[in-house]
Amino acid sequence: MELKKTIRDALMLRYQGEMASAKANIEVFMNNSVGIGEHPDIIGAIDSQLELLSNAEEKLEAVKSHYVPDRVI
Q1: Rounded distance between C-alpha atoms, residue 57 and residue 15, angstroms
Q2: Cβ neighbours of 29 (radius 10 Å)
Q3: Could you give the CA distance from residue 50 to residue 43 in angstroms, rounded to a whole number?
């Protein structure tokens, strides 16, 4: 496997993982906010997770846009 592809794929997986983690945290905050004592500011906590989600999504799209070769079918 080509090194560039390995690195690109690793970055894409990293950003997908960051997105999944942020989405899971948002779901917990929205559905179980009563049980989360260390986050009295639920809105602020969700906003922080949305920022992480959007940053990872933006990075993933940048990798796809600039470093994934066009596929000819």
Answers
A1: 7
A2: 17
A3: 10
Buried b (16+ CB within 10 A) or exposed e, 11-25: ebeebeebbeebeeb
Supply the DSSP symbol for 40: S
For residue 29, which of 38, 42, 40 has the smallest C-alpha distance?
42
Cα–Cα distance between 65 and 41 in angstroms, integer?
A: 36
Q: What is the pLDDT of residues 28-58, one digit of tens each?
A: 988 886 656 666 788 898 999 999 999 999 9
- Quickly tell me which residue has 């906003």 as its tokens: 47
